[in-house]
From TrEMBL:
The chain crosses the membrane at residues 48-70, 82-107, 127-145, 165-186, 206-230, 257-279, 299-320. One of its GO terms (molecular function) is G protein-coupled receptor activity. It is found in: Cell membrane. It comes from Sinocyclocheilus rhinocerous. This is G-protein coupled receptors family 1 profile domain-containing protein. The lineage of its organism: Eukaryota, Metazoa, Chordata, Craniata, Vertebrata. Keywords: Cell membrane, G-protein coupled receptor, Membrane, Receptor, Transducer, Transmembrane, Transmembrane helix. Belongs to the G-protein coupled receptor 1 family. Residues 62-318 form the G-protein coupled receptors family 1 profile domain. SUPFAM superfamilies: Family A G protein-coupled receptor-like. The keyword Membrane applies. It is a multi-pass membrane protein.
Amino acid sequence: MTTSHKIMFSQQNYTELEEFNKSQMFMNNLPNASHGDTCPPEPQHMSLAVILCLVYLLGLLLNGFSLWVFTCRIHKWNSGAVLQFNLALSDAIITPLTPLMAAYFAMDSNWIFGDFACQLKIAVLSIHFNGSVIFLTLISVHRYVSVVHFNRSSLIKRKIFVKKLCAGIWCFLIIIGIFYGWLLPVTTEENHGQCLTIHQTRLTDAYFIINFVIFFFWCILPLTISVFCYSRLASSVSRININSAQGQSVKNKSMRMIGICVFIFGLCFLPLNVVRTIGVVVKKYHPSKCRLMLQLQTAYYACYILAGINCCLDPLIYFFGSLTFHNMLMINKCSTTF
């Protein structure tokens, strides 16, 4: 073999070795690669932060207007208005945290804001989502009792009782939020600070237990109650005398509220709980399936945005559930037109 042939052969071997090393590095960086049976955190696309800000900004405008109508334009509240006001309040409290969450996603999902900010984020998110669910459920029960059992006395029809009930609910929500914040601290995974993410390996068991508590008590149970109330309400509404204008109005308003509430539960809360449940099960029993974990993480944040849309949809309940709120919106629309 000549010297030139030896040089060409050596260069060819070096090129092949270099290509092999590159392919090995590529394979090691694939999402399915296992690093001690854990999956490294993956940054989310910048569009997530943008969409999150837009959704909650729209929610702030709508709920800010709703709170203004309730506090400044509705002078005589009934029990239904009290529940609707508290629902609007639970939707509005998430807004101040939106820039913090958007910055977290923009910085490659690296939490740099410290333990207290993380605990505050968890507490407020818990109060927001759980508050929205429970007040939405109570509105369902209130509508059911008011229409189906309109000729019976009930505590939920009494404004004083509903005010005390809402005060107790807020105390309960705050306690639960503080407990969750204490139970789920900031951890460091792959040199990234993690706050309320599925990648917090040492919190896997805590997330698993908390998820199923939330899934049953804050998703399945409220959804079952709401479906029962609105199925009975739909059956009762179908028997309302529609020959009178008042009967037709009650039927139309109640049917719209049925559709809106069921739609909110189905679109906003159910997908988030289902995807999160699948995620914690995969994390606990199949922690090395990183590609699946990444897909579930992306799906979870997409459902998280859907859950945030409830802030934009809840004002429709006030529009159809409160005559004063409806009239105020119509007056503002007419004044803007002229």
